[in-house]
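thought: fold this chain, then report.
action: predict
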Amino acid sequence: MTPVEMEQRIVRYGDLKPCRTAFIDAHTPGSDQKENFTIIGAGVSESADQHVHISDSPGFNIGAAGQPPRCRNSLHTHRTAEVFFILKGTWRFFWGRWGDAGEVTLQEGDLINIPTHMFRGFENIGTDYGMIMAVLGGDDAGGGVIWAPQVIEEAAAHGLVLGENGRLYDSKQGEQLPPGVEPMPVMSEAAIAELHEPTSAEVVPGYVARYWDMMALADRQPAKVIAADGMLKDKPGFEVELISRGSITDVPYKTDRHEVLMIMRGHWRLSWSGGETTLAPGDTCAVPPGVSHSIAPAMTGEASLFRVRNTDDPAGATHR
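observation:
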């Protein structure tokens, strides 16, 4: 693999292209300053304006959300896994039919593996622009987003309608549903009643991993964060590890799995038979199966990254 070919597999943080009209709440006050990023795979954006950096999907999708202070992502649910780690800022995650069943506050480096079949939302409660990185299960990210009924109703009051084809139409821009396309059906109250409404005490122990706990486990070997035998025991179609400078050497290795490297802290030197490059915080690199490579800190100081690999487990099969 040449340096040019590898660079095409790297999405630099400074090159991320946002979409500000990705979802149905794009005009809703309090949610109208969100920026959505689709890094690897098709993602779940409802807008044709969404830029996709790497279209290939390794069995999961990689995305990100950037939000200024007090901006929130409205209540929704997914059929497959939705995993976030905090790259920048302080964030509050909340869940339930009305968003009041439970909540947790996460700091930089913390990770949450949000249960499926549960309405969830999140907001930046810090003082600066924040960024969270996401891993979504499945090649098609589970068929998109399912919004809480009140989100759809409020969006309509601000001119946005979601079609059953998964696309947004903005009446403020003179758009309307095409002939033969009906509005996306609202989830019935009977279906809503079957969704989970766990408390914070139920969610936090089994679905949240704190950064310094992960770093402690990664002192000598990669910390298994999400895996059947990991800190957060799950099989969502991918595994997540945290790697620190003490848990990996510069000895080359290769795997038959797709491997995505997501840099959290420090600068890392990625080497392979065709060249070498440096990855910085917020960079994402998709290493294809069978490529011999090594990854090691490029300088002194704190260094950490999340490594994501696909597994043979069906996306979201046991993710509850």
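thought: worth noting. Residues 149-157 form the longest helix (9 residues).
final: tokens above.
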